[in-house]
Request: fold
Amino acid sequence: MAAAYTLSYGVGLVITARLLRRRLGGYLDGCRLIRTYGKLIVASALAGTLGWAAARAGAGASLTGTAGTSLDLAVGALTMVAGYLVLARLLRTGELSLLRR
Reply:
């Protein structure tokens, strides 16, 4: 399901870029877009790995049953969010500064 979502997002990005290029008269800063998306992909992949590791680490040491699973999921999700924000800031992603305004 995640792979299908990623593929559909990529196809949508290509279609949108073509439509925008036509609408803007050929000007679309492709190098900047590729650089930004590259940074975001790196940040999200590393944050996903950190979240997975945090959830797996808690799986053996936390509560059992639904409560334990929920706690592990919450720890993994919070680790992913924090990791993504920190990594995006370290990679100097310009769009992150818009969130602080």
